[in-house]
Each structure stands twice: as C-alpha cells, then as structure tokens.
Amino acid sequence: MRLKSLVTAGLAVVLGLAFGAATAPAASAAGPRPDFQMPFPCGQVWTGNSNASSAHQSYEIDFNRGSTADADLGDPVVAAAAGTVVIAANQGSTNGFGNLVKIDHGGGWFTYYAHLRVMSVSQGAQVSQGQKIGEVGNTSKPGNNISPHLHYEVRTSDTSYPANIQKAVFDGVTFGYPVQTVTSHNCGGGGSANPYTPQEVCGSGYSVIDSAALGTAGTVYLLYNSGNGNNCVVTMKKTSLGTATATSAYLEVQGRSRVTDSGDYGYYAGPVRASAADTCVKWGGKAGSSSYDSPFEHCG
For the whole model, what pTM was predicted? Predict the structure, then answer.
C-alpha cells in the first residue's frame, strides 16, 4: 500500500491533532453500535492505515488500493450503515477534510468520509447501507497537497473530540490497527448483509464485470478470470439469509449447452463456471420472485 502525502503542520493545528499523542480511551455511545460495513462496494479489497499521516488521532483510517498514487481516484465510496446525511459540503479553510460527508446513524453514532472528489448526496438525505455517497479524492484545505485516499472515522456524541473517535468495526470485526487489508462485505441488506462475496464464491482471480438486481431478494453477478479465460456466475441472496429458499444461477457460452445451479440455498446459488475467452455468454439467475436473463454479450 502507498502512504498518502503528509499534510501540513497547519492542518494539525486547525484540527487539534498531534502526531504521537496518547491513544484516547474509547467512549460509549448512548445506543448500540450499528452494524457497520466497509465504506466500499461489496467484494472490493482495501488497505487501511491509521499511522500514515501526521494529522492522525487514534482510530482514524486512511484507505487506499492499487499501486500508484492515483490508482483509486474516483472509486465509489458507500455508506457504512443506513442513516441521515448531516454534512455534505466542502470544508474550505475550516479544516483539512475537503469534501466531507457525515452521516448520523442514530443512537449517537456518526461516520465521516473525507477528501472526496465528488459528493453524491446532499444534506438531509436518507441513505441506505451500501448506497454510493461520493468518490475517492484528494480535496483538502487550500495548500495541502495530498494523494487520493478515503479518510474514514467513526465518532460518538457522548463526549468531546478526540475522545469520541471510536475503533472502526466492519462486519462485526474490529479493524486490525494500525494497518490491515480488508475485503468489503457491504453487499446490501441494511444490517443483515450476506457474509459472502461473489469473489469469495467464484474463487481467486475472478473479478465482477457485470451484475443485475433481482428485486430486493438478491443480485446475480457475472465474473471473469483473465488468468484462465473462465467466466463465473453466482446469485447472492439479500433476504431470507441463512434460510433455504429457491435460488438459481446459470451460464451459457454461445454454441454450448447452458449450465445451471438451482436449489434451495441459504446464501447463494453457484458458482457456475465455464471457459469463455473471446466468446459471447448469456447469464442470469433467480432469487425470490425476481429473475434476470441477459442477451448474448461480453464477447471479448
């Protein structure tokens, strides 16, 4: 993982931050902690670092992926949990957050998403878990030259800054401070997210190249492995998780017979794999009462 450029000392003064300061004790919010997920789309892998900047208090995290300075510029940022947007604004000279989205999750819990290139929500908006709220950027206080990254924080309302900054917890697991690489399970469901991702189901080397919503019951994904030329289709459930319900996934390579996995499953149908380099495929699936059937496509 690359480290972002150090912010200026002036930023540290404005934000009241001191590099090397003692770790503040975690506070206890009035309400239970929401079921926070990673602030990135389902299946993406990001590395978080809480020691990469002179402007850090304990438990703040900077996220990056990729091997170049601008690798994740413009990547989508999504809500870690459902809530109400209370800030969606450029902070100007107030602090070093640049374009900032702050979400109130109720019960005294808030999340912060800073340095965004663009903000996709406005103040007062109701957002669901996994909804896009902006894009990774490098906006900051004038004069601060930083590389693109997402600055993420969890705060509570029961005490003052910086004691109200909490450890980040994703999918029920506390982030492995100071540095950890984490796979996002922010796959929808608003607190009952599917514990599996399409990439985990299909296996190493597969990346999502297309998807289709199956109403509110699930999503069917088409993945491709450039290393072996194989496609993979999997249908991920969003409702009735853990309960066996009718779910299916299929993949049809043009000129060959369709391969289908269909049954009563708790979390997903598939994986259905087939070699399809330079060949068109038809794919789809069903969850609940909704189904999707693609045309022959993705022929390259």
Answer: 0.59
